[in-house]
Description:
Blueprint: H1 2-15, H2 21-35, H3 42-56, H4 68-84, H5 88-108
InterPro entries: Fido (IPR003812), Fido-like_dom_sf (IPR036597), Fido_containing (IPR040198)
Domain Fido: 1-96
Protein name: Fic family protein
Amino acid sequence: MQEQINQLFEWYERNKDSLHPIALASHFHFRLVYIHPFADGNGRTARLVMNLILMQHGYPPAIIKAAPEHRLRYYGTLEKASIEGDIEPFVTLVADCVEESLQQYLQGLGIDKQGDDE
Length: 118
């Protein structure tokens, strides 16, 4: 398992300047969950690291909501990536969550979606 973690960080170093930050964070999250290095808390840890990567690049955190429909999409896209090797639905999910966080921030600032003050 240590070798897999080392490979994950090597992958990150190779890709941190070439992948879009949302794709980078999503791929790191998926790869860490796939390795499953901890007895408990793998998903929480992966989401924390994913959000750290996003925030380091100036993006708001991707909040995966606890509502059943959100959790089903989250687990479904991770499963699709694991079984079929198709990570794009998971990247899209993360991008949607980042966009939702950004919209909440803008609303809090009194700015609508087009950037106009309300």
